[in-house]
Structures are given as structure tokens and as C-alpha cells.
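Journal club prep — side note

Before the paper discussion, L.F. wants everyone to see what a predicted structure for a comparable chain looks like in C-alpha cell form. Sequence:
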Amino acid sequence: MQCRHRVAIVILNWNGKAMMSCYLPSVLAHSAHLADVIVADNASTDGSMEMLRADFPQVARLQLDKNYGFAEGYNRALRQIEAEYYLLLNSDVEVTPHWLEPLLAFMDCHPESAACQPKVLSLRDRSHFEYAGACGGYLDSLGYPFCRGRIFGSVEADHHQYDDVAEIGWATGACLLVRSSDYWQSGALDGRFFAHCEEIDMCWRLRIMGRKLFCVPQSSVYHLGGGTLPKDNPMKTFLNFRNNLTMLYKNLPDSRLQAVMRLRCVLDWIAALQMLLLERHPGDFKAVLRGRRAFRRWKHDFDDERRRIQQSRRTPDSEILKPYSILWQYYVKGRHLFSKI
């Protein structure tokens, strides 16, 4: 599919008919003059495609033959799209007037940047950041993700405290503008992840290549979040633990891998016991254990790729992994705001 514009906004859909009906009009109203809007459908069964044909005939449609998940679904869709930039956009995102211009202008002026994201605010509480991405993401020394504006469950109100453009460790897949050339040169999203952590893994590989990532808060969008898998869904817990460990195994240098993995094993057991004994969530407890077992079963499938990435590494780990533990900062030092770290 050859796009008319330089930017292809690609919304990956799976049974998101209601969300597209609600939020797609904002995308078309504020983006169609700069971008092609395309919906790639992961074999939905809720009438999503029929609704698009009837209500949004100007939206291009790509029909996939089954549900490939977020990562491989995007890969299969983007292989069919020719554009200078891809903008990966969740179906539960409401965009704002002139949201796309700052992102595109920044990328055009900064050729060293592979990707960027806007400020992501919450549709549930518009005065606050949204959990998945906020104002740009980072990884601590043990691979735990956090954001400007969100650390673990503490989500900050937006008082414009993070309105400066910032280089970040990872950009959220909820709204991600990426050069198509960088997307493919990095190896794309890892389809084996299915969903969760796949964009962080790809961003880490982009950083390994020497490319940079930014948050451009002059652009802002509102994200509902939890549209496909709610936060307390055991499947979400399973995918987060399995994929986070896999991401570390793929991208950590050999000099740090063993020590980090040993400590993560201890911390994962502590997290699992907390879910069981304190939070009374036995499903999440079992999901953590299943995630660790699944990682152990398949980790050697990534050996060749991990070694290749290590050999091609051109930037030090400190540029993506912060030299401190966010667990220590949050739970011991009581620093719940990004600005206090």
C-alpha cells in the first residue's frame, strides 16, 4: 500500500469497534491533512470492519487472517505499507488539534532520532498523565520500566513540569512515531512477545544501534488504557513478566546478565508472594510463576539474536539503563515523583 502522505497512522484493532467509533473521529479531524489513516484488523469478530466500511469509508483497511497480537500484528501490517514514517496508535487514543505537527517537525529537524512520542494524558482523568507512557519512559538498573510522570502505580498530575523535550529510554507503543527505515533496521517488534514490553525491547535495540528517542510534549494525546487487557488481568501479568525477562536476556551485556537475572528471580518471587498474601490475587501469583517458567523454556531461542546485538552494540548500557534501582528509590527512599529521583 503506497501512502499519499509521508506519515501512515496505523491503528491495530482487535474487537475495538466501540473504541474506534468513539476516538477515530478525532484522529481523522486532526490528522488526515498530514497522514494516511489505516486500520489493520487482527481478525476481529465484533463487526469492526463492517462499521469502518459504513461509517469511515475514508479509512484504509488491512485485514489480517488471525489475531497475531500487538507485535506481530503490526509487523504484518507495516510490511504492506510504504511511508517515510509509521505512527503506531492505539484505538483508545483521542488526539488533539495540531498534535501531529510538533512530532513530525521534531523528527525532520533531528535526523539522529529514530522515534518520538507525545505527552500521553489520561482519558479517565484529563488532569493526570496516563500510566502507559506518560511523558517518556526509562529503565532502571534491573530493567523495571518507569516514566516521567509515572512510577509504578503513582501517576502524577500534569502541571507542565515535564514540558521540555527530553531524550528517553523508550517510547510508548500507544502513540509512537518511528522512521520506517529504523523500524526495519532494528529488527521490528519481536512478534514472539505477542503483547507487552515489545516496544521497550525495540527501543532498546534502536538505542544499541546508536539511534535516539525523545518525548515531544508540545504534542499531547489522551489515552484510555486497558482497553484490551485490564491492568489486573492475569494474562497481562504473565506477558509482562515473561517478556520483561526475555527483553533483559536479549539486550543485557554478558558482564551484567547473570547478576541481574539472579536478583530479578528473588524480586519476582517477592512480587508473586505479595500478590498472593497481601493483595489476595492468586491468579496473578500463578501468572508470575507461569511467566518465569515460560521464559526459562524459550530463552535459548534468543541466543543467536542476543549475541548478534551484543556484537553490534555501539552505545553503553548506561544510556538506556539508569544506574539506580527504582524499587529502592520508590519503596525505601519514598520518592514517588520522577522529579525527585
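L.F.'s comment for the group: The CA atoms of residues 82 and 211 lie 22 Å apart. Keep this in mind when we get to the figures.
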